[in-house]
């Protein structure tokens, strides 16, 4: 669909992962499965941490927060995808599109900031173990969580405001499965120079802040661990970081692939990479943490035991 001289279209068309009719039902089954597994996995993690007094520590406070954010993140994207898989129109209202862009940016960045807070927690636990309880107090954890929410939501507000100032008069077909910022910018027939500059300056600084926090924390952790004389001691110290490093690698690897490319080179491969950091990471987080964490396994066992006894 094309039109002229319309600055604010009433709706957009989400092209999705595939436009072939025969792909729609298999994709629906795949993503409804991903969504249900994500919801169940993260809800179980939250309930296990909430119900076990031994898991009321800073590390699990942030893990619980990460699980909640992952539920919100996927809920902003997948339900609309599922509707479009079964619909011929595949439309989304302009206002809904802008709202989806805002919350996708917000929750995606909250994810990265919570991962940054978890890196700080691991740094203090390994490098300053005798001061851990004092430094990582409940007040400090809540403050880190507030920062992790405030900065991303203000950051997203700026980008959506700039996006809303653009003129969309070339096409209303979004070559993506949700109203992703870069895909939206490609539709504008007005200059996106300011938007791209803000993405490369403010956007990059906001995204890189937690990433640099993670890098610095793990460099300090590595320095401390290498000073431990025994191999068993080194393994024990690093074992508490394995799950976190796996999640960070998945999340930042895929998001870097998408956003560190020029706007005009955006292709279907980027859509697939987007699935990883918006959905697969959220789905895999509970498994990554529960399979590699003895305390969380015990907490899950207690929760399952309580459910069976009722």
TrEMBL record:
Its annotated compartments are:
Cell membrane; Membrane
Bilayer topology reads: Multi-pass membrane protein
Q: Which Gene Ontology cellular-component terms appear in the entry?
A: plasma membrane
The GO terms this record gives for MF are:
G protein-coupled receptor activity; olfactory receptor activity
Keywords (A to Z) from UniProt: Cell membrane, G-protein coupled receptor, Membrane, Olfaction, Receptor, Sensory transduction, Transducer, Transmembrane, Transmembrane helix
Q: Where are the transmembrane segments?
A: 27-49, 61-79, 99-120, 132-154, 204-226, 238-260, 272-291
Residue span(s) of domain G-protein coupled receptors family 1 profile: 41-289
SUPFAM superfamilies per record: Family A G protein-coupled receptor-like
The text of the family note is:
Belongs to the G-protein coupled receptor 1 family.
Q: Report the function annotation for this chain.
A: Putative odorant or sperm cell receptor.
Spell out the protein name for this chain: Olfactory receptor
**Taxonomic classification, please?**
Eukaryota, Metazoa, Chordata, Craniata, Vertebrata
